[in-house]
Amino acid sequence: MTDAARALSMLDLTSLGEDDCPDIVAALLNKAETPRGKVAAVCIWPRFVAQAKTALEGTGIRVATVANFPHGRPDIAAAVETTHQCVRDGADEVDVVWPYEAWLNGNRKAAGDLVAACKAECGDKAHLKVILETGRLQTASAIAGSSRDAIAAGADFIKTSTGKTRISATLEAAHIMLEAIRESGKPVGLKPSGGIRTTAQAAAYLRLADKIMGPDWATPETFRFGASSLLDALLATLDAGR
User: Fold this and answer.
1) Quick one: CA torsion of 205, 52, 81, 68, rounded to 10 degrees?
2) Predicted TM-score (pTM) of this structure
3) C-alpha closest to that of 163 among 194, 201, 130
4) For residue 84, what is the domain's CATH number?
């Protein structure tokens, strides 16, 4: 399978714009199944979960949404309330933002407690992806420590970024996160997100995962790309026969 085909099968096709509306979401959902294959999931605001669930019924494409987004405030009750509503509306996956500022300020328990509470709310109905916001954590030690703590709190995936900050996904952050996953020995996935727009960029992340985790590790169950414009680039590559 080519890099483009692999990446397409692992894509969380995303729309989290401030002006999103039902028509914008409908257009996104129509793009999720392509002549070259279908994406792994669509990621939209909580208010569109029910719409997406209905539209994608029977396709096998997952519905992902966000909680505590994008600021990662350490408000456990609010994050749990959003997660509860999303799961009730049919979300298959919830991407919750790690309270990175609280964690950096030494309140690591609150960060872990928020993830654990949201994971409990997901139960066996939805996977929980934890967005670390690595561009704000900045240092290798903070990214590694947050990765370990999020995994310990019950994250099913750890994710680089919201895509709402100046620095989003980087190969350096992904490397640190993959090492934390490997060292944990737990079945946790990785989701690079934010700023990944080309097939070459996607391929670099896949090669990194293959190197650290082994060539058979990265599948839609363990690896995702969070992106809005990457789909067009992947399709162009596939149509060109590359």
Assistant:
1) 30
2) 0.97
3) 194
4) 3.20.20.70
